[in-house]
TrEMBL record:
Keywords: Membrane, Transmembrane, Transmembrane helix. The chain crosses the membrane at residues 35-55, 87-111, 132-153, 159-183, 195-221, 241-268. It comes from Mucilaginibacter celer. This is Glycerophosphoryl diester phosphodiesterase membrane domain-containing protein.
Length: 300
C-alpha cells in the first residue's frame, strides 16, 4: 500500500497527475462523504430544477420542430416567459454547488496537510467552509467575469488567464488570503511555470471530460437513434433521454473533485519550487525538544 501523499513537494508533469488520482483514491470515502454532506442538498435541488427546465425546453423544441405551420412558437414571448424561473434557479443552484464543491475540496486538502497527511473530519471541514464560502464565491464571480472578457477578446487572453486564475482559490484557502492578495500572488507563482501548469490542468480536464462524456453520451445518443429510426415522426426529442442526460450531468459534478485536487498540487509544486516553504518548516523544527508529557514525573 502506498504511503499517504505528501502535498508540499515539487513534482513534474506526470507526478502531479499521478499523485492527484492517488490522493483521491486514498481519501475517496472521507472526501466524497464531505462532498455529499455539504453539497448534497444543492446538488439535489439543482438537479430537480434542471429537470423541470429541461422538460420545458424539450416541449418547446418539439413544438418548434413539429411538422406543420410554425405557429407553435410564440415569437412575441419574452425571454423570461419562454425560459421561466426554472432557468434562473438552475443557474443559481449550479453556481452555489460549484462554490461549495470548491470550498469543501480545498478545505479538505488544507486540513489534511495541517494534520500531517491525515483525513479531516466533517466537523473540521465545515469550520473551513463557513469561513471561506463567501470569499470563494466572490472570487469565483470576479474571476469568471474576467475570463469571459478574456475569451471574448481574441480567445487567447482567456486561455492565458485560465490556469493563473485557477490558483486564486487554493491561495485564498491555504494562505488565508484576501482576493486582492491572491490575485497578485497567482501571477507571481506561475511566472516561468505557465506552460507546465497549463499542460497539467489541460490533461486533467481532458480525462475528466472523457469520463463525463462516457457516462452521459448513451442517453444523448438515444435521442439521435430515435430520430434516425423513426424519421416519420420528425425531429422529436425523447423526454426520458433528455431528463436522464441532465440527471447524469449533475451527478457527474463529483468528478470535479479531481481537477480541484490537481490545482492544489500545482499550488504546492509552485510554492515549493519557488520558496521551499515545506523545507524551511522542517529546518526550523530541527533541534526542537519535544517534552514527553506522557512520562511519569521524576521523584527525588
Amino acid at each position: 500500500m502506498k504511503p499517504p501523499v505528501e502535498l508540499a513537494k515539487t513534482r513534474d508533469f506526470s507526478e502531479t497527475i499521478s499523485d492527484t488520482f492517488t490522493f483521491v483514491k486514498q481519501n475517496i470515502k472521507p472526501l466524497f462523504k464531505a462532498f455529499f454532506v455539504f453539497s448534497g442538498f444543492f446538488l439535489v435541488a439543482g438537479t430537480i430544477s434542471a429537470v423541470f427546465f429541461q422538460m420545458k425546453m424539450v416541449n418547446l423544441a418539439n413544438g418548434v420542430m413539429a411538422p406543420g405551420p410554425v405557429a407553435n412558437l410564440d415569437y412575441g414571448s419574452s425571454f423570461f416567459e419562454r425560459f421561466g424561473i426554472e432557468y434562473f434557479i438552475t443557474i443559481l443552484l449550479y453556481m452555489i454547488t460549484l462554490t461549495v464543491l470548491k470550498v469543501t475540496t480545498f478545505s479538505y486538502v488544507a486540513i489534511y496537510k495541517e494534520k500531517g497527511n491525515l483525513p479531516p473530519t466533517t466537523e473540521e471541514v465545515w469550520g473551513y467552509i463557513k469561513y471561506y464560502f463567501w470569499r470563494i464565491l466572490g472570487a469565483s464571480f470576479v474571476s469568471n467575469i474576467l475570463l469571459v472578457i478574456g475569451f471574448v477578446f481574441c480567445f487567447i487572453p482567456g486561455v492565458y488567464l485560465a490556469p493563473i486564475f485557477a490558483l486564486i482559490f487554493p491561495i485564498i484557502v491555504f494562505e488565508n488570503a484576501s482576493f486582492g492578495y491572491a490575485f497578485n500572488r497567482c501571477f507571481t507563482l506561475i511566472k516561468d511555470n505557465w506552460w507546465l501548469t497549463f499542460g497539467i490542468l489541460l490533461v486533467t480536464w481532458i480525462i475528466i471530460y472523457a469520463c463525463i462524456t462516457a457516462i452521459t453520451l448513451p442517453a444523448a445518443l438515444f435521442n439521435v437513434i430515435g430520430m434516425v429510426m423513426h424519421p416519420q415522426k420528425g425531429t422529436n426529442l425523447s423526454m426520458t433521454a433528455s431528463v436522464l442526460t441532465v440527471v447524469l450531468q449533475h451527478l457527474c459534478l463529483v468528478f470535479l473533485i479531481i481537477p480541484i485536487v490537481t490545482i492544489s498540487l500545482c499550488y504546492f509544486n509552485l510554492t515549493e519550487s519557488k520558496e521551499g516553504t515545506n523545507l524551511l518548516e522542517r529546518i526550523s523544527k530541527l533541534g526542537e525538544i519535544k517534552p514527553e508529557n506522557d512520562l511519569p514525573a521524576e521523584e527525588y
